[in-house]
Write a structure and sequence with these properties.
- The chain has 195 residues and is an alpha/beta fold.
- The protein folds into two domains: 1-100, Rossmann fold; 106-179, Formyl transferase, N-terminal domain (Rossmann fold, 3-Layer(aba) Sandwich), CATH 3.40.50.
- It is built from six helices and seven strands.
- It has helices at 14-25, 43-50, 66-76, 93-98, 122-130, 166-190, and strands spanning 3-9, 30-37, 55-57, 81-84, 103-107, 135-142, 152-159.
- A seven-stranded mixed beta sheet has the order 3-2-1-4-5-6-7, sandwiched between helices.
- Helix 1 packs across helix 6 (166-190).
- The longest helix is centred in the C-terminal third of the chain and has 25 residues, at 166-190.
- The termini are close together.
């Protein structure tokens, strides 16, 4: 299967950049077909413009029906896997059904721990620091209608040290996210992971 990737991102889109780099190096056989952001000033739209990647800003201010526009873009660009890369909006059930089982997210914890509505970014790492957990990590999962509840495809653990802060833990998890997201795509491509 040729991986025709679409992305949803709200700000920096670090996952997009990581996967773009892996494709550019030849270590991931995939094509970035479209990047959709809800934020007109996002760094990811600027990145897309610099790298000549097809991108759109789709939000309630510029579209009457955001959901329908997103579905059109996914279909028009022949996306067969949609990846969330720091997308801070809930994906609608109609968008989810368009690519049923083929919308992935990377979350900065070992789900089911520290997931759910409002648990994103530094908030996740702060919760781990306040816990007695001795490890954290990242999870790639299929999204469904509930925040962070979809089928887990892969996890990568990192230690949580006694002297960690939320920032030091966030940096450690961020580094392994750069390994995990592209590896999951390679494993999908090889048929090791089935969607």
């Amino acid at each position: 299967m040729t991986l025709h990737l679409g992305f949803l991102a709200s700000h920096r889109g670090n996952g997009v950049r990581t996967i773009f780099d892996e494709i550019s190096k030849g270590s991931l056989d995939a094509v970035i077909k479209v990047i959709i952001s809800n934020n007109p000033t996002s760094e990811i739209l600027q990145f897309a413009e610099r790298e000549n990647l097809c991108s759109y800003c789709v939000n309630e201010k510029n579209e009457e029906n955001v959901e329908q526009r997103m579905i059109e873009l996914i279909e028009d660009h022949s996306v067969n896997i949609l990846l969330l890369a720091g997308y801070l909006k809930k994906v609608s059930s109609n968008v989810i059904s368009t690519l049923s089982g083929r919308i992935l997210n990377i979350h900065p914890s070992l789900l089911p721990k520290y997931g759910g509505q409002g648990m994103y970014g530094i908030k996740v790492h702060e919760a781990v620091i306040l816990s007695k957990d001795t490890e954290s990590g990242a999870t790639v999962h299929v999204i469904d209608e509930e925040y962070d509840k979809g089928r887990i495809l892969a996890q990568y653990k990192v230690p949580r040290y006694i002297n960690d802060t939320s920032d030091t833990l966030a940096e450690r998890v961020s580094q392994i996210e750069k390994i995990l997201y592209p590896q999951v795509l390679r494993d999908i491509k090889k048929g090791i992971i089935e969607l």
